[in-house]
Design brief:
By secondary structure, the protein is α/β, with parallel strands linked by helices. The chain has 3 domains: 171 residues, FAD/NAD(P)-binding domain (3-Layer(bba) Sandwich); 148 residues, no CATH class; 104 residues, Polyamine Oxidase, Chain A, domain 2. It has 17 helices and 20 strands. A hairpin with a 2-residue loop joins β6 and β7.
Length: 501
């Protein structure tokens, strides 16, 4: 590499992680190229148009109160993409089950009292809700450390809740539905460690954490498109329809290029920012990656099928809450539906009703025809809100997303990668990459992209590191309890070193 040349960095995958890494490196003067396999940047949150010109995207993604880094990014970009804070509801085949307030507007209570007291359960008895109290020990014990992940990753979330005496009704009507739409799989298929991490980050750590805003259009249009323009103005390159098939290494075992079909992109460093399914596809064609045990072990990981539908109805249907989660319609599948007239600027003046309904762990639905799927979706919507039964569907979109989102199954933690790899100049990012900051989902993906960019800066000693906003500190009583628990563990291990802890 010539002294007058900027280091050449190739980033693979144009989702939150890849765009985050590319943007920061471009700001620091790197020669950075972002390669995206599809025809549009954005991964699962990119949007596109139907033949009739209607907006479609692969699911609706919320932006929760703790997403401080994403909120900081959109402010830096000068964007105003989000709705106000919204209330949400939860339905079962029996009807409305739960309504959530805007927690930050209510008097602040120490965690987890605010969540417990202010969440408005319609049917769940108090005795069942109180059965969750012993579970607080696991919440305190799980501190997002490597040791905590290894303790809890070996059992299922369902086993965890059963061990701590959570009632069957509370599990079926509250915890399992959260897992179905938060970890995208039922509790018997979810790692207890991932369940504790997700529940704590989104719900239990601080009273306002469950508060959420939504993008006022597709994330692709509202955030990614102007973001990419900024990257290109900074000198970064974003290339679509570039499916990476191999990694080339030099005689010293360092990455020197990535291969996209017949095209080769030379590199001084590489950041992979793709999901598990995409990474496994790259691995399948790369002898350089297959030679490393950490990458071969990725074949032990898996992902979950998602079904995304959008329906246009011929009349207005009153939907009390703009965002809604549903459970009990299928044993192993959770789903959500959204009033896009209320959330998306494009549809606020629509004469009819536009609804997005997304299904997670939806493998049993994917073989069905579009018409069969839409019939099921309208039936489910009608169960929740009877007026949908009288409305006529005038347009529709069905998107099948096979192996689309990370499956944090029991035992998966041991196969996840860290940001640093055994290649000195190859780094990982994405929502499935191990980090110690406690972030989750889109926020985690974006933060790991910044972390990968910072590792590049460390390596080449060029530029300033990205400033990453840490998660809000645990409340004082949680910190005290965790320190006490840690001390007890240390004493126990000194006396009983072979005890399973």
């Amino acid at each position: 590499m010539s002294e007058i040349q900027s280091p050449k960095v190739i980033v693979v995958g144009a989702g939150w992680a890849g765009l985050g890494a590319t943007y920061h490196l471009a700001k620091q003067g790197y020669d950075v190229t972002l390669l995206e396999a599809s025809s549009h940047a954005g991964g699962l949150v990119a949007g596109w148009k139907t033949p009739g010109g209607r907006s479609v995207e692969a699911g609706i993604h919320g932006f929760w109160y703790p997403y401080k880094n994403i909120f900081s990014l959109v402010d830096e970009l000068g964007l105003k993409p989000f709705t106000p804070w919204t209330r949400s509801a939860q339905y079962s085949p029996a009807g409305l089950e739960v309504e959530s307030p805007i927690f930050q507007d209510l008097p602040y209570l120490p965690t987890p009292l605010g969540t417990f007291i202010y969440t408005q359960f319609q049917r769940l008895p108090l005795s069942d809700r109180l059965s969750a109290l012993p579970l607080l020990y696991a919440v305190v014990d799980f501190d997002n450390s490597d040791q905590a992940w290894r303790r809890y990753d070996c059992i299922t979330a369902r086993e965890l809740f059963k061990q701590y005496g959570v009632s069957a009704r509370l599990y079926n009507d509250a915890f399992n539905p959260m897992l179905l739409v938060g970890l995208f799989a039922p509790g018997e298929q979810c790692s207890a460690a991932a369940a504790l991490g997700m529940l704590y980050y989104f719900i239990l750590a601080h009273q306002p954490d469950f508060d959420v805003v939504w993008c006022r259009g597709t994330v692709g249009d509202r955030i990614f498109s102007p973001w990419i323009k900024q990257i290109e103005q900074l000198g970064g390159k974003v290339l679509t329809n570039q499916r990476v098939t191999d990694l080339r290494v030099d005689e010293l075992g360092q990455a020197k290029a990535v291969v996209c079909g017949e095209e080769i992109f030379t590199a001084d460093a590489v950041i992979f920012a793709v999901g598990i399914t995409g990474m496994k596809k790259i691995l399948a064609g790369s002898s350089a990656l297959q030679n490393r045990p950490e990458f071969r072990n990725l074949n032990n990981l898996n992902a979950v099928d998602v079904l995304s539908t959008r329906l246009w109805f011929d009349r207005k249907v009153n939907i009390p809450r703009a965002s809604n989660a549903c459970f009990g319609f299928d044993t192993t599948t959770g789903w959500t539906f959204f009033d896009l007239n209320a959330l998306h600027d494009e549809f606020k003046d629509e004469p009819g009703t536009v609804v997005e309904a997304d299904f997670y762990h939806a493998n049993q639905f994917l073989p069905l025809s579009d018409d069969e799927i839409i019939k099921i979706v309208q039936g489910y919507l009608t169960t929740c809100i009877p007026a949908f039964g009288e409305a006529k569907i005038i347009d529709k979109s069905v998107v099948r997303l096979r192996q689309a989102v990370t499956h944090f199954f029991p035992g998966s933690y041991q196969y996840l990668l860290s940001a640093k790899t055994s290649f000195k100049n190859v780094f990982m990012s994405g929502d499935w990459v191990i980090n110690r900051h406690g972030y989750w989902s889109q926020e985690k993906a974006y933060v790991t992209g910044l972390e990968a960019a910072n590792l590049i800066i460390d390596q080449f000693k060029l530029g300033e590191k990205a400033s990453i906003i840490p998660v809000q500190a645990d409340e004082e009583h949680i910190q005290v309890l965790r320190q006490m628990n840690k001390s007890v563990r240390q004493v126990s291990q000194s006396f009983f070193p072979n005890l399973w802890l």
